[in-house]
Every structure is written in C-alpha cells, then in structure tokens.
Amino acid sequence: MRTLKELFANNQAWAARINKQDPQFFLKLSRQQLPQYLWIGCSDSRVPANEIVGLLPGELFVHRNVANLVVHTDLNCLSVMQFAVDILKVRHIILCGHYGCSGVQAALRRDRLGLIDNWLRHVQDVRQKHEQVLVKSGGDAEASNRLCELNVIEQAANICHTSIARDAWERGQELTVHGWIYGLKDGLLRDLNFTVSQFGETQDRYQKALSEIA
After folding, report:
1. What is the pTM of this model?
2. Pick from 26, 95, 142, 176: most CB atoms within 10 A?
3. Measured between alpha carbons, how far is 116 from 106 in angstroms, rounded to an integer?
4. What amino acid positions are annotated as catalytic residues?
C-alpha cells in the first residue's frame, strides 16, 4: 500500500521553508484566522487560489467546486459564505472562474459524463440563457471562453442575491462581490467588471458586465 511519502516529504520541506522565513508563522496562524477575502473558485487542480494572488495561508478563505457555481440550494457553498461573512467578517467575495474549464466545456457541448451532469445542469442554464451571444462567437474555442465569462457573471450575481450578502449589506457591513476569470495559458487574472458593494447596484453592474462580453 502506497503511503504517498513524497507528499509528506514535500510538506516537511514547505513547513521548514516557512519557518525559516518567519519562525512564529505557524504559532500565530494557529491562534486565529483573519482573512479579508473569500474565494469561490473551480476545483480544477491548475487553479491554486492562494498562489494566484500571492497570499499566505490564513489570508484567503476558500470554497471550490466544479465550474465555480453558486447555487441557492447548495448548503455547502452557502455555509462557507455565511461563516466567511458573518463570523470572519471578510470584506470581499471573489468569484473566480477560468478559461478552459472542463465543466463549462462539457455544458457547452452537452456531453454526458455521469452523475456530474446534474451539477452541470446549472451551467447548461447559463448556456441557454445566453444562447444568442454564444452563437455569435467565432468558433468552439471562442464560445467556450465566452461561456466561462458568462458563467462567472451569473454566479457572482447569484452571490449578491443570497440572503447572506443582502443581510450583510442591510446591516451596513462592508462587503464587495467581484467577478474575475483566470487564464491557464498566461497565469493572469482578468476583472470582468462585475463589482458590487450594495444590493441596489447588482442589476446595473450585471447588465454592464454582460454588455462588455456581448
């Protein structure tokens, strides 16, 4: 039976490296976490949240799922959001998708993959909602990129419509929702210009973000 010794060795080397930089790092980290950001992203192994934005452990609260979806019946995602906003008092929620997302591509091609088809039905809904934009795209690769962007905007808007975000804004808590996308080919983030700091901004920011894609 393999015990993945190489991963333990990697962990020891990483911990030693961090300790060398800051001998008190893990002691301070164990006492509290005070992240300013909640990252909701894709489970894709090529999109490491902390590394992309250059943040250390403790600085970024993270939830990931296939195709970075925010579904109003997903108690896992909503529980993470509620803990981040109500308990940790994060000031920013970043919904980050990425180009080349396998889940988005499967929804675009209407692939049948098994159980996950039920989850990706939510991306199918985004595809159907924006069918005219996708039809105008110049080929499969371009359509995939557009759907990745559209999915980010839709999911970021979903965040704004949750009771968690709306309650925070109603009580005057500082909270901003962002829609970003990551490029696997260049390692760079792109702001999709969906930035909402109060519920009343949601529809206007949503329409403007969509107009820049269309």
Report:
1. 0.95
2. 95
3. 10
4. 42, 44, 46, 98, 101
